[in-house]
Amino acid sequence: MKPDAVARAERILGIDAETWARVVSRGYSVNEHWTVGFADGSRAFLKLASVDPSPQWVRDEQHVFECVDGPFMPRLLGFDDGDRPLLILEDMLPEARWPPPWQPGDVDAVVAALSEVSSAPVEGELPLLAEDSMVGWREVAEDPAPFLSLRIVSAAWLERCLPVLLEAADSALLDGASLVHRDVRSDNLCLRDGRAVLLDWNHACIGNPAFDVAFWLPSLRLEGGPDPATFGVDEMAVFVAGFFAAQAGLPAPEGAPRVRSFQRAQLEVALPWASSTLGLPLR
After folding, report:
1. Could you tell me which residues are beta bridge partners of residue 46?
2. Phi-psi region of 212 (alpha: psi -120 to 50; beta: other; left: phi over 0)
3. Partners of 35 in the beta sheet?
4. Rounded Cα–Cα distance for residues 110 and 124 (Å)
C-alpha cells in the first residue's frame, strides 16, 4: 500500500509513482520526508507535516516559493494543504552532496549563494526581520534561570555583562530590504554542480542579509569551519549569541525534540564571539 504522502503526490502531479523511500532527515523537526520516482522518469522530494508548529511552517514555505525563485533553492512542484500539509519539491538527493565534511570551495559556494539570495527579487509580502519576535538577551534578562542552568557562565558574569549585551542588540541592525533565508545550517543546504542550494525556506523574511551569514557561522565552526570573526559580520554576533542564550536552556519543543543540545553547542561558539566583539570578559 502506498504511503499517504506518495498517493497525494500522485494526485497532485497526475503521474503514477513507481518507487518511493522514506528519508531520515538530518534536521531537528519531525516532518515526514519521502523521495519518489514517477512513471515518466521524474523524481520528487515530499515533505509532510503533522506535529505543531510544522504544519504552519510548511504552509509558510509554500508561500515563500510563490514569492521567490532562483538557483539557490529547489523548484516547487506542487502543494496540498489540510491538517497535514504536503510540499512537493524537486529531488536534490541523487545529484547533491551534503556537508559536512566541508571540501575546498564549499564555504565560498555558500557565501556566493547567500549573496544571490540577498539580491533576489521578491514578488509578494514576506515578514520583516526587525519586526519579528525573535528571542534574545531581553528574554534572558526577564528570566535568566534557563540560561544560567546551562552553566556556561556565572550569574556574576551575566549581571556584569548583560547591560552591554542589551544595548548592543539594537533591532535597527536587523533592518534591510534583502531576502533573508534565516535558517542557514548544513542540514538545510547541499552542493550541486559547484553551487550551494538552500532548503527549508519557511522562516524567510526581509532584512539585513548579514543575518544569514552570521547565524550560519556557529554550526559551521562546529563542523570544522573557519572562525566566525573572519567573515566580517561581527555586528550580528550579539543577536546570534542572544538567540541561543534564550533558547538552549528551555524544554525541548514537541516538534523538534533534539534541538536544544545543538543550540547549546552553537551558543558555546557564539558567546565567545560576541564577547570578544564587544570587549567583554569570556567568563
Report:
1. 34, 88
2. alpha
3. 21, 45
4. 25
Q: State in Å, rounded, how far the first CA of the chain is from the last one.
A: 58
- Does 53 have pLDDT greater than 60? yes
Per residue in 226-262, pLDDT (tens digit) is 999 999 999 999 999 999 999 999 998 876 778 899 9
Measured CA to CA, the distance from residue 260 to residue 53 in angstroms comes to 16
Residue type, 36: V
AA identity, residue 174? L
Residue pair 237/243 in contact (Cβ under 8 Å)? The answer is no
Give 20-45 pLDDT, tens digit per residue: 999 876 655 667 899 999 999 999 99
Residue 102 pLDDT class (50, 70, 90 cuts):
very high
Burial 175-204 (b: 16+ CB within 10 A, else e): ebebbbbbbbbbbbbbbeeeebbbbbbbbb
* Predicted pLDDT of residue 26: 61
Options 3.30.200.20, 3.40.190.10, 1.10.10.10, 3.30.565.10; CATH for 4-89 is 3.30.200.20
